[in-house]
Amino acid sequence: MEKEIRIDIRKLVFVEDVYIVSDNIITNLGFTTEENLDQVVSGHTGIKLMEDERISPEPFYASMIDREELTGRFSMLGNPERYTRFEQLVVCSVHDALLQTKLNLAGRRVLFILSTTKGNVEMLKDNSRTSPENNRLYLWESGEIIRSFFHFTNDTLVVSNACVSGLVAILTGARLIRAGLYDHIIVTGAEILSEFIYSGFSSFKSLSRGPCRPFDKTRDGLSLGEGAGTVILSSRPDLNPEREPVLAGRGFSSNDANHISGPSRTGEGLYIAIQQTLKHYKGKTDYISAHGTATPYNDEMEAVAITRSGLQDVPVNSLKGYWGHTLGAAGVIESVAAVHSIRNRMLIGTKGFLEPGVSQSINVIAQTRSENISNCLKIASGFGGCNAAIMYYR
Amino acid sequence: MSVSLHISNFCLIRNNHVMAGKHLLFTGKEIAFQDFIKEAYQHFKIGYPKFYKMDNLSKLGFMAAELLLKDRDLNRDYGKDGTGIILANAAASLDTDRNYQISINDRNNYFPSPSVFVYTLPNILMGEISIRHHLFGENAFFIQKKFDSLFMVEYVTQLFEKQIVACCITGWVEMDADQYDAVLFLVEKTGQLNDGITIFNVRNIDDIYCLKI
Questions:
Q1: What is the DSSP letter of A125?
Q2: Cβ separation of B123 and A160 shorter than 8 Å?
Q3: Where are the domains of chain A?
Q4: What is the block-wise mean pLDDT of chain B (213 residues), using blocks of 10 residues?
C-alpha cells in the first residue's frame, strides 16, 4: 500500500528549486573540489605519460589517480582490502561531499544515484564467467555496496548511459526532487581506467597521441581519465548556508537516431536537447560547458549544434584537457566545475586549445578569466547517439 | 496537475515465446537465445540487415520494440522528440563485456574490435531502437537489481506531468549469459489494449510482468 501513498503525496507537493548544496571532485589533481579547481585555475593538467602494464603494454597519456594515495585516503574510512578501487573512489567522493552538509542520511526521503559506464569491469580480467565472488561486476551490486557503507535507506539507483551518464544522473535526481519524491539526492559519477576501457577506445582509434586538445585545429583524439564527482541536490538551501546557492535547472536527454558510434553531422540530438532545455529560460545563456572530448567528430558536432541553437557567441569551454575524459564521471565532475564557475564568476580556459579547429565560429574560452556569469548550459554526448543538456544558475 | 496514463501495448519475450498485446505471437523451436531470436526475426519477416550486427541485448530489445510498435509511427504521432525511451536491467551490458574481455585476455592473441566494444554499453540498445523508429526524444538507461515497477511508474509519470515526453517506451530488457527477459510497455495518454483500457500503474505493470508464458 505504501507504493500508492507515495504517488498521492506527490500530487500535493510542488518543488521547482533544486539546490546544489555540496560537491566533491577526486582526480589526479586532488581529493577535493577546491584542490582540483586550484590546480585547474593554475593551468595544471592531470594528464601525464603513464607506464602501466595492467592497462596498456605501451606508454599512454591519461589522467590517473595515484593508487597508494587512494588506498591511504580510504583506509581512514574503511578497510581497503574489502573494497575495490572503484568502490573506494565512490566512498571517498561521497564522504567528502557529505562532510560539508548537515544532511541527515537516514530515511526514505534521501536517495543515492550512482553514475558509471563500467564500474568494476577490471574484475572481468581472467574471470570471464561470473561467479558469486564477482557479483561486484554488476553495477547494481556496486550501488548496494555503497548503500550499505553509508547506511542509506533506499536502494541505490544506477545510471549507465555512456558518456552522458553523469548529466542523466543529475537530471534524474533533480526531476525526482521536483516531483516531490525525495528531499535530498546524492549523485556520484565515478570511473576507473582499465585495460578494458583503454583497449576499446584504442581500437576505435579515438585516442590522442599527446594530451588532448579540445576544439583545436591539431586535435587528434581524446585522453582518458579516471575520477569521481559528487553533487548533493536538495529542495532545501539551508543545508549549506555559508555558500551562495546555485541551482540545478531543467534539462533534457535525447538521441541522434543516426548512428550508434558516430555523432550526427547535423548535431540533431544535441540541438534538440539544447532547445528543450532553453525553452524553460527567458534570459541569455552566459556560458556553455561543452563535452569537448577533442575527437575531430565530437567537437565539430558540438560546434554545429551550438551554432544551430544561435549560441555561437556564448563563451564555451571544455575541461577535458585537465582531467581527460572520465566517461561516467565526466558529467558530474564538469557540473561541479560549472557550479563553482558560476559562484566564483569565473570562466575556465580550455587547456590544450590554441587555434580554432571547427567549421563554425564559436567563442572558445582560451584563458581563464573573471566574468560575471549567472548561469551555465552544460552539454554532453556519447556512444549510442545519446545527448544531454541541463541548466545551472544562481 | 496529474495525468492519466494508459498502457496502449506491451511486448514480452521470454522462454522462447513472444507475446504482444495479450496475444502469444510466436513460439520458437530453438532453445539457445542466438537461434531463437534469429528464428523470430525470420518468422516476423523483419527485413533489417543491421539486426545481424547487433549484440544479444540489442537484438532482444530491438525485437521487443518491433512488435510493440507494429503498425505505429510515433515520430508522426508525437513529433520527432515527443517519445521517450526509459529502460532498465540488472546486468547492463555484462553479456557483451564478457565477450569483449575474451578478445583482450591474451596479449599474444589480442584482437579488440570496435564493433564489439561499442556494444559494451547498455544504452546502445536505445540507439538501435531510436534509429529504427526515428525517435529523438528523452533517453535514460537505469541499472537495478530487479524489475522495479514503482520506480518505473513514478519516473515515467513525472516525465509526462512535466511535459518532457508525450509518449514513452519503457521496460526491462535483461541479457545475462543464457538468461534473457524482455518486457516493453508503450505508454500514452490515450489508447487501449484489445480487451479494454489498462491504466499505467504499479499493479497492472506487475501483472503483465508476471505473466507466465
A1: T
A2: yes
A3: 2-239, 249-393
A4: 83 97 93 96 97 98 98 97 98 97 90 95 98 98 98 97 97 95 96 72 95 88
